[in-house]
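User: quick one, fold this
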Amino acid sequence: MEQQGLTLPSVDEMETLIDNLELSKLRQILVAIHPADIADLLDELPPEKAVIAFELLSIEVGSEVLDETGSLVRQELLDKVDEEKLADLLDELPMDDAAEFLEDLPDDLSDRLIMLMEPEEAAEVQELLGYEEDSAGRLMTRDVAALRRFWTVDETFRYLRSLEEDESLHYLYVVDRDDRLIGVVPLRRLITAQPEATVESIMVDQVVAVPVTADQEELAEMVARYDFVSIPVVDEDGRFLGAVTVDDVLDIVEEEATEDIQRLGGSEPLDQPYFAVSVLQVVKKRIGWLLLLFIAATLTGSVIKLFENELNIVISLSLFIPLIIGTGGNAGSQTVATIIRAITLDEVRLSNIWQAVRREVSVGLILGAVMAVAGYIRAIIWVFDTDPNVAFVVALTLPVVVIWAITVATIIPILADRFKIDPTVISGPMITTIVDATGLLIYFLLARVILTAI
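Assistant:
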């Protein structure tokens, strides 16, 4: 692994230096490495050795590394690093990042660290934590340059030179006497403008901003739509409060994707880093859905019991139960993943639900035809000597089940989204379970009709 021509040490090399107590040499190596790369290296070390390496870092670098480390190392740091030092590290972080770090901690530890922070930083963090979780207010940074419309370009440059290094300068926002947001100045316009030009003459007065109460998903959608590097945040009266930068938006995207993946697996999302969550909390997150899916899965057994006479008469029908429910479940899972993604991108909604259904059913017809041929060949090989008519039942059932599964997997997520229910919550395993039971019902009904008629 390299960093701008610098070869990063391997994990084995770092462990050797720690084991041999060559900590001065390790410190010299770490000084030349970017904090994000240090965090990656610490994540690969045994947690106890990661703490030793972390203690060698300066407060400035350590704060960035703390913000980048994975949950296992972070938990070890929380357990082993002195709380006063942790508070100093949080003082160095942008306050939105410090607030995000603190919100993942137990309340008692979070309160203690805030008490140990510098009063000004602690007050700002508490203000951010006072906003609704997952809102723009919780994510914004207040370290943003605010200009006055009557300033000249020359005066603006003098003001910018006086700012601290951690001030965000992606865009320069213009406010009036009441701190209401009235414009934005892109850096390029400022740099190329004449020194005597006023801010008002070069600002863009059509400003896109988000209310402080905006949900983080809405915020991420707006940044993606307008290709912003940062987006301003205002209160209900239009007063400028701060801005959310693109690095925080990327964290939002990752967080939302993580939640969706966990929900698709039939589990409530974890609200803290993986290793910071106790085993009991993980059980609580999973047990509800597991019990619900267990109850739903009994439908499959009920269907089998309902048609046990047919099974007793034609034993070979039971051979194809896994094939039928597996094919239906897989077809449904493929569709639901595609539809949920399309809903997220606002490509599919209730207004075009039938267009989506027609499209997916067309796909299902083709897939079903292919599966019917494959199923017939497989069934002939298995049961020709006993009852070749079963192969015909299987071949007819597969396309019906595939089309049914695709239809269910298309409609349910769209309806859920329309009624403000997260589609991922009722999709995935739930749709698979429903399709399993109804697929068997289709299979046995067709078997009863066809085998009786024959």
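User: anything notable?
Assistant: Residues 2-134 form a domain with the MgtE N-terminal fold fold (CATH 1.25.60.10).
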